[in-house]
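User: quick one, fold this
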Amino acid sequence: MLKLILMRHAKSDWSQGNQSDHQRPLNSRGIRDAKRMGTWLKENDLTPEIILCSNACRTEQTAELMLEQWESKPALCLTQELYLASPESIQRTVHQDACDFGCVMVLAHNPGISYLISLLAGEDIQLPTAGLAVFELSIEHWSELRNSSRVRLISLTKPKAL
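Assistant:
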């Protein structure tokens, strides 16, 4: 059974008005929450084997801070394709880049990440910053990932709940 972790980046810093959206880093709460979520994943035996990550500064920082919490270091694949991606683009990236990994994390942005979670869960879910959803998939290959009953939401976790 495959596991898919869909996560929204941690809280970003809006204080530098001269930075582009793509260059915005995390603020202090975002740094704290990224570490907290990394620890939660480790404690729940959900450390991914690969992180497919938007190449925006805030998503890359979120991933790096979580990696610091884990003994085993998953591959980190930064891609422009996940920057402000639609649900369809996110699924396409998983189909192409998840390879034979059993546990894959996608680290991206709203609204696309929340919309994909909602489609897979069959209910409206608005993910806060640093929130994540964990799905079990009754499929053998990532290319079979679709919005179907073969996908089951097993955890919805937010930093404020920890």
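User: anything notable?
Assistant: The longest helix spans residues 28-43.
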